[in-house]
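A common beginner's mistake is to predict each chain separately and then try to dock the pieces by hand. The better habit, illustrated here, is to supply every component at once so that their relative placement is modeled jointly.
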Amino acid sequence: MEDLRVTCDTIDALALGQEGDDLSPVERAAVDAHLRSCPGCRRRIGEARRLDLRLRDDAAEQHAPARLWARVIGRIEVEEVSPRRSTRRRFVVGAAAAAVILLLALTLAGPLDWRGDEATPVVVAESTNDFITYRLSERGPDVRGPDYRAVAGWLASRVEFSLPRDLAAPAGYRLAGARLCSFLKQRLVSYMFEKGGVAAYLYVMAEGDRAVLGTAWDATAEGFVSYRAQGLTILVWRESGLIFALVSDLSEDDLAAFRRDMSAGAKRPDDGRPPEPVILRASRPAAGVVAAT
Amino acid sequence: MGRWFDSARRKRRQADYAALTEPHLDALFRTALRLVGTVEPAEDLVQETCLKAYRGFDSFQEGTNYRAWLFRIMRNLFIDTHHRRGEPTVVDLDLVRNEARARSVTDGSGRHSPEVLYLHRSFRRDLLRALGGLAPETRLVTVLILVEGFSYDEAAAIVGCPLGTVRSRLSRGRKQLQGQLTDYLDAEGVAGDKRAGLCDEAG
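With all components supplied together, the output reads:
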């Protein structure tokens, strides 16, 4: 290529791209000479090189959104716990996915810092696709004291479903905070209960999105699905047309007891009759639906 | 015991996967954004790519080009999606928000002027629009080589076509982009010529 003849037809390949990097000094001189003598090529090659530079400069400054890797890992976690891979565990696909994503919501949102002794902004979540971005945009009520009714009253106007009228914190626990989240384009409410530095998070959402939660519900005899993910125990159950998910680093037994106490306290009738059993069933039963009590 | 081993193996697999994949997340996102034109679908494309890579992680041969392997997965997903859904036509306004999180644009002095920032934002918006006008495979080759710096050989392997096809697609893509982005390419004037190596420092 030492006797290289550079023309307007051949210069692009030589002056642009990877071939250009391998030119000998003589070839490079020939290219430069043509560029000096040909205004058309000079303009065109100049623009092309500037385009290359701009594209690289522009790209160098752009980074993936911080939440993206968490999304990827979240999907992988969901896939790992999916029963499609293991028929031994008869957990509900949708419920497991829902709970894991709820867990993600918890993780993405960071620690709940709504203390009972201060008026802290509510974390309002706006969902994009199936995931969640958070912004601080509203002021919450003053939740001084473990007044569930005050919190529930404020939250009730901001969700599309009826929150339980009474939700009793189990003995020793106090209601430490609450917030609104968004999950799969639905609002959900999260409560944080606390006892001696141990926290349990209760998520409540409407049962509405059947496509998400699947048509089968194969709960245990106690009426809930439980498993562990990312070091946390998760209990999911249905009750009164709502989905509840309890997330904590407590053991499954402790969480089951927590749930029992909470349900019993909430459902204790005034007339002294024993509490009604919690009925878990699909609102629109389909083939394979298991109703558990 | 079996479960414990399963769990340990899964954790190790996840750790290996994360160590290899996460460093390429920025590049995957940049490429996805330039392929699909909007932020949310770009995130979806990256997510699907990573998920598919995780599923097939055991089939990846150590010592081969992991980055190219990832991009090949993305290419296949992109082409499949394109054939299924057709072209996106809207440039995402979220880009502006996204820009706010991007690193600062400097004007050479280390500071960033509003004009430079504005020009930069406009450039990306118009770039995405211009890329959207390219045929999908042309767009892909153009982005792989000009943005992510893949070699022609790597791009040919990712796209699955001969080297000559890569060259012709790149040439076509570059010409079309030049035609669409002329304003930005002229705007840098002599300074741009210097950077592009078309005149010496004195000139």
